[in-house]
Each structure stands twice: as C-alpha cells, then as structure tokens.
TrEMBL record:
Full protein name: Sigma-70 family RNA polymerase sigma factor
InterPro entries attached to this UniProt entry: RNA_pol_sigma-70-like (IPR039425), RNA_pol_sigma-70_dom (IPR014284), RNA_pol_sigma70_r2 (IPR007627), RNA_pol_sigma_r2 (IPR013325), RNA_pol_sigma_r3/r4-like (IPR013324), WH-like_DNA-bd_sf (IPR036388)
UniProt KW keywords: Sigma factor, Transcription, Transcription regulation
Signal peptide: none
Source species of the chain: Streptomyces venetus
PANTHER family assigned: RNA POLYMERASE ECF-TYPE SIGMA FACTO, RNA POLYMERASE SIGMA FACTOR SIGZ
Residues covered by the RNA polymerase sigma-70 region domain: 29-94
Source domain of life: Bacteria
Family recorded in the similarity comment: Belongs to the sigma-70 factor family. ECF subfamily.
Length: 193
C-alpha cells in the first residue's frame, strides 16, 4: 500500500516560520495566497468590502494560529482555501440571516440554497485555479473563447487527441465542484461549513 506523501517542503517550512513568529513569513504567505483568498471570499459573498474583511480575518487567523494547520491533512494552499471558505460562509449566513430577520422576506431554505450555490461556485473557482496550466488553458479557450477541440489544439500547438484529453480531464475535475467527497476535495468545501 502506498503511503500518503507528506506536504511540500515549502508548506512545512512556512508553518515552522509562522510558528516562530517571523513577520516575513506572513508576508510571503500573503503574496502567494492573497488573490486566492480574496477571490474565494468574493465568490461566496459577492461583495468587495466583505471579501477584504475575510482576507484580513484569514491571514490574522493564520498568524495567530499557525499550528492549526496540520501538514498531514494536505497542502497549505488547501488549508487556507478551506479556512477562507468556512469564514466566508459564516459571514454569508450571518448577513443573510440578519437580512431575513429585518426584511421578513425569504425563507431559511432559500438562504441555505444561496449558501450552497455560493459554495459550489467557490469550489469550482478553486478547482480551476488549482488545475495544471495545460488543462486550464484548454478549458479557458473552449469556454471563454468558444473554441472547439480542433481550434484549441491549433491554438495550443498540440494534437487534437491531446486537446480532447485535456478538455475531458478538465471538465471531469470541474464536475466535482458539487461533490465534496471527491478525491482531493478540500474538507468543508460543500456548503455545510
């Protein structure tokens, strides 16, 4: 039976540096993951200021609790994304529940539907951002530029078979956005945070 490979060396070193209180480590972590954190928070909340607040909360949590990351559970990137998702969903529920109480329109079922929809969208964004560049490039051409597999192959300088393979694999990965039990799915990334 194959053993699960440990986290990348950078992840372990980063956690150690954060645990020692190295401010430069927080800066490096911020440089690497701030756009991911902000993008996921914005995708869930749909609000720039709220996403800014979640971004601050995530990096404050990482700074104050670096030992809450367990390298055996997966990459630091996934942990940061999961933390972001959890905090953004909490904020969305609180905001929407408050609005529901004040306005009296809507139901808790509609609220949960909005939370699930936002969670799936954030997970899809995470999957796309995390997939290898060749897959992402093929999907971007097919989706945003409305290119078929032949045009994608020509654009990327690859065979048509390779273009079909990349598109198929990319779409298979993307289809797991609804499936929180999929291999490699970040825990808590299904809306039930």
């Amino acid at each position: 039976m194959a053993q699960k490979e440990g986290p990348p060396r950078w992840d372990r070193k980063m956690q150690q540096r954060l645990a020692r209180g190295e401010a430069a480590a927080l800066g490096e972590l911020y440089d690497r993951f701030a756009s991911l954190v902000h993008g996921l928070a914005h995708r869930v909340l749909g609000d720039e200021r709220a996403a800014d607040g979640i971004t601050r909360e995530v990096f404050a949590h990482v700074w104050e609790h670096p030992d809450s990351y367990d390298p055996r559970q997966g990459p630091l990137r996934t942990w940061v994304a999961t933390l972001t998702h959890h905090l953004a969903v909490q904020r969305l529920r609180a905001t929407e529940t408050e609005a529901l109480a004040l306005e009296g329109s809507g139901t808790t079922e509609e609220l949960e539907h909005r939370v699930r929809r936002a969670s799936v969208a954030a997970r899809a964004d995470y999957i796309v951002q995390s997939m290898p560049v060749p897959l992402r490039s093929a999907l971007e051409r097919a989706y945003f530029q409305r290119r078929d597999y032949r045009q994608t192959a020509t654009d990327l300088g690859i065979t048509e078979d390779e273009a079909r393979r990349r598109l198929r694999l990319g779409l298979q990965l993307l289809s797991t956005a609804h499936d929180t039990e999929a291999p490699g799915a970040p825990p808590g990334f299904g809306g039930a945070a």
